User: Fold this.
Amino acid sequence: MFEQHILCHKLPKSYDSIDADVNREQCINKRNKTIQALKRRMLNVEVEQYEIEIQHYEHSYQQGLNALYSQITNPTSSDHKCQVHIVLHFMKSYFNHRTNLLIRQIRYKESCLHVKLLSHHRRHSLLKKKTIDVYPQIIVDIPKVSLNRVQLDYLSRNGPNYVRPNQTYVYSCKYRQKRMNQEYNRMLDVIVPYLVRVHYMSNTSTIIKTFSQELATCLYERYMAPMSYLHMDRARQELKLVKSIQHRLNKSKYTLRVTDKSGIFHIGRAIDYEHKGEAYRQKTRAYVELESDPLWTVFDKVIHLLNDLRSKKHILAWQHEKMMPKRDKVALAYLYFLPKPHKEGTPLRPIVSSMKTPTTGISKFLDKLLRPLFDKHVRSTTIIDSVDLIHRLEAYVSNGYLKPTTYLCTFDITDLYTMLPQEESLNILTEFLLEHGYHKVKGIAIDAIRKLARIVLTENVFVYNNKFYRQILGGAMGSAFTLTLANIFMWKWEKELVRRQAASNEIYGRYIDDIFITSNESLDTINEWLEQANYFHSNIKLVRQIGKSVPFLDILVENNNGLLTTSVYHKEAAEPYIVPFNSDHPRHVLRDVIDNALLRAVRCSSTLSAFNHERRSIKLMLLYNGYPPRYISSRFMKFFTKYQPTSTVSLLIDKENDFVALRCELLNKPTVSEHQIASRIAKTIEHPQKDTTENPLVQSKLDKKSKWLNNLIIHYTHEKRLQSFKTDIHFLWNKTFEKTPVITTRLLVGNRNSPNLTQDLVHRR
Assistant:
């Protein structure tokens, strides 16, 4: 029942009194954050007490059950023994029946309470005194905002990732027909070329025409099918509300953005964004204003460079085609800013959206060309995720290097992307390739790579507030190649630190612009040589944190008098916001959210108590975002029973040894980052032989290459009313191609999401 109160936004009144107890002299955002954190901690404690009580009842139940079994399992004869087994069987059946009956009764009472609480919340939400809720809330940096309570609550409750349900149904039949034709053409544009290329069919063959006609019929039936009044009304009401929010934002000249770390909405005045953006440009001096639109000048430069390289046979025809921009598809990049409300004054983070620029093709090509080389040769000093760091720490401990006096240190590099010196970065790129024996990469000479990299860096132009700019320092945040170049630049910068750490058997690891090290030297010595590191390069400045407990990525690492512990770390700015349960996402997305959160909790928590604390936080986060308690319980049950049996009532792991065994099993499974790196490295091996690599994960990717050749992947835009379409298209595929070689092709049907609230409401240009 307690969970239903959280789900329905009906917390005890005692929580409202906390607002008055917190220091009012703090800035509003910081004060609100403090109140939220305090309330969430209180809820976590209450959930813990709730679970302890359940465990107590379950323990008493098991004790009584065991005592009963022991009294009746003392047979004096074989007949008696047989009768005892029969009695025990019926008793267990009865107990299971009673347990399930009680659970159903509890669920029914929960449903009744849910309806009652929800009705109460709807009636009193507008009359309720404004308080700081535990739920993720929109941040309003305007003294008196023109949006009403309903509009603000909608943005807070649903957040940036929310997708309105059944979006196309509220439009006219003509519009739905147009959308249906778009989906139809997208799928056929993938299917028909595959059948022609792989199975040598004519695109005018009867079987392709039959499949096309039936696909069109299936789509028409799905898009034009009637929908229940309840769902139709919800779709219309939400569209109306979103349009009213758009109107208010435009009329009042507000800027709606998604916050940098917490991922929730932020409303500020457009004029404030302009002033802060100008201040950032003055501070970094990384941008110069241009007099006119540079798009076609850059386009011509890219065309000329690619044609020149191709004419001299420095690149192959397919590489030339891959990088060549299309005149009808290019657009100028644009700059926008993400607010950081967790910091004083709400500073901004610049992002350049360069998805359609003339240099995008080159940037993506260089990233795919060079990043696998970085992954391969600098893996020993690169931390790819928190699990990778845990493995390094465990090896450090097992080798006996961790002592009670060992210090842990993390440091962050300030504005790495925008502070890269362009020409020097290109020189370091050349040095990196030569040092690792590459005079050519996939047939492309270093000189050609350098020319391609230079045009990506130097022709980084964009528009902001109808003014044109060129970036003269660093690379664009948002460009694929910038990350790879920054990593290679840091490879050169960190050499001295790597050598020093290796000589003393200490850890050195870097994740882009975050670095983690260990040291058994004195605090003064550590500060001294880290201060020296600040002068390795004039553009690279470090912000360090040293102690026996430091956060890195999403884990908190602690040295408790020579005992290493880790737990999940949530940044101060983080908000418990995820995809809302009522969002029109495919259901597997919601399942993955829970499974991934639990997986991270198990891997990052070194003790059962740390895991249980994080598990309760996950449960509360799910409740904040509208996930029903029954759904949460079922997903938790499936996750834990996948690895080991758990209690059917509390769904808890209550033994330290069981948790350690589970954690070891999950830590030894490859992470997503490891799979991605292995895939990139495997793609660099052009003619793989059996057992060509020592890395078993890379070898597995090589072995799977041939299997994927017989796969066909298509996508459609997901809507709740189209959820059976995936089954329909599989049925149609099997029916049409049943007696042809095409049936050996594995058809994979994926989803595209409809526009979410960010796409509906956030205008970045």
Observations:
- Residues 585-669 form one domain.
- The chain has 26 helices and 19 strands.
- The mean pLDDT is 86.
